[in-house]
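Hi P.,

Sorry for the delay on this. The queue was packed all week, but I finally got your sequence through. Input first:
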Amino acid sequence: MTSDTTHTTFGAHSTAGDVLGGIDLTGRTAVVTGGYSGLGLATTNALTRAGARVVVPARRPDDAQRMLAGVGGVEVDQLDLADLASVRTFADRFLRDHPKLDILIANAGVMACPETRVGPGWEAQFAINHLGHYALTNLLWPALTAARTARVVSVASGRDPSWRIRWDDVQFERGYDKWVAYTQSKLANVLFARHLDLLGRPYGVRAFSVNPGWILTPLQRHLAVEEMVAAGWIDADGTPKPGLFKTAEQGAATQVWAATSPDLDADGGGYCADCRIVVGGDPTESGGDPSDSGAAARLWALSADLTGLGLVH
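Then the structure:
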């Protein structure tokens, strides 16, 4: 499907609360990575208000507990997406305590950080934004399939046709550019959802990628004020450019919509923005990019090789 045929009353200014109005998530379990800050916090708040039980895995659990104090229906656990052993340990605990997982929102991420190596020397943005979530989804697969109608939402960014996966150097061992590395990781989020949906459909697991829009959150922590001024995001006094940014609640709307909307029961694999599918999951449909399906399968195979994990080959 494309945005022209997606039936929704929501749009760019809708909030996560608007999207969940009238939706009862009682009895549903969700995992929201990074669900204690920025978009993730807005997502967690909205899901719990709708009745969901939300597990928030966090690299700094004490900070997460502090940010989520007073929010009912939340469990905080330890998870470092840059460390596959930590991902596996979290997944083992989750599977022990929860029979099913209805919603997985891969929300946590890092943007434009200085060159950083994690795990076996992986570039941090590709590792955290993509590989960690790839591993987490694979390890939580038994709980996702047990739900019978699960949704996985991969939080990406604005989609640009110039973005590429550096197949011959995905870890930026031959020269690091923080923005090229970031956009590679965000394209990986889109391709991941596309191929996951293909593999998950027979098991009732559907996947979407989303562009939340422009939001000022802790994601910008690695950017100097001068850099954001030069980009036109804010002025010299730190005031955001009028009309450029959404609130966190507005930014969370599309990922909550993709995770819960009954209008999407027959869809999957698409890239969403402003509570609409803007690029479909089927490359034969109008608006699809035929190259994406091949790239998505190639990325899945690469990720399986790097992590040693894979659902279906």
